[in-house]
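Protein modeling request. Please complete all fields; requests missing the sequence field cannot be processed.
Requester role: graduate student
Desired output: 3D structure, token encoding
Chains: 1
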Amino acid sequence: MRRVGILTISDRAAAGDYADESGPAAAAAVTAATGWPIERQAIIPDDFDAIVRALRQWCDDGLELLLTSGGTGFAPRDVTPEATRVVIERDAPGIAEALRAESLHVTRHAMLSRGVAGLRGQTLIINLPGNPKAVRENLDVLLPVLPHALDLLTARPESGQGHREV
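Delivered output (166 residues):
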């Protein structure tokens, strides 16, 4: 089993102005596709320092996959990518590129996503959009490669696919 966390980043959801739907959508998709339970799930506001603290703590606590939802657009408080860049040690640009490329088949607004992906220690961090429908669409693209990606990152084969150089 993999250790998975889902962090929703939204001022309004954190304040209780509306119910978070993107985090539960991500959790349901990950668990249905992989069987991995969600070890940690939280909602925090669009606050740069709070995002950095949460990402660092969850990585340091040994989560292997950390999905964020929200804060990846053009709004002034959308700072998830910037906070993620502070935390990651190595970029994984192919993931964000693939998510945007596939999303463009659904909506031209996909080109407005600034989400990033990267590695901190043995944790893979991936920024997803805040829209629940977009979260599901992104995970449809991402989930087939996650077992192998985490096998490579953690040097612990679980997917049954063995280790291959990419």
